[in-house]
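User: quick one, fold this
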Amino acid sequence: MSECVGVVGMGLMGQAFTHHLLQSGFKVQGFDIDEKRGRELHERGGTPVDSPAAAARGARWVLTSLPNSDIVRDVTLGANGIAQGAAPGLIMADASTSRPEDSEKLGAELAQRGIRFLDACVSGTSAMAWKKDLIVIAGGTAEDFGACKPLFDGFARAAYHMGAVGSGAMAKLVINLVLFGNRLALAEGMVLGMKAGMESENLLRVLQDAACSSKTMIDKGPKMLHADFSPEGHVRTSLKDARLALEQGARVGAPMLVTSLWTQLQQAAYQQGQADLDSSSFIEVLRGMAGLPKRT
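Assistant:
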């Protein structure tokens, strides 16, 4: 009999998770406040349910993919939450980008209820998720991490144990910080080339093959070049994640120069009506500053 996974949150990432888990032979029961997501899960061969508690009932693992740690807490401990449907020994893996100290607190409270917890953040865009090109960075006990290996293998290409609960969330914020810098440098370079009248297709091709090349240039370069801002992740989510990183920098006393600038640019894009576009659409803010026409 196939193992059962409950999934709570089937947005851009969660849809890809359920697809791969079903393809890997898991039984998937999923909940999302958007009924359309439930219908899509049914079409893929999964079972939509009517609450987080129902997603947890009978499952070995519950995988959450939600907008922030406040919502994670609510769907876990609130009315009809995961904790109400969980049998002792269930493992909850939270793939949301959460505040590390919130993950630590939730993990401690769940442990008192006999529920095991990992902050199992993922690195990659939703497009990468559909290609199963994500990595998991998880915080929790080594035993719980090992017990989640079949789950992680079902939707990701690799998984890394980062330490105690909270360390997965912190690692995700560090990854995001470096990613912000990559995207900012790429957009700034592209806008300089555009303003100077360079042939942009050729410029991007060179950047992708030069010493400065990165995954960002492969994945986001064409979107910036062609103003294809169909979302693989939203400006509003990027802004939220950047503010989380700034908060951690203030908490521990670390310099956050790149993240501060990235946050301002994402905020400008948000205020200019780009909240639901891909985070790479911030290049239009830089183009505007350069006197180039806005393409969105």
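User: anything notable?
Assistant: The domain at 4-165 is CATH 3.40.50.720 (Rossmann fold).
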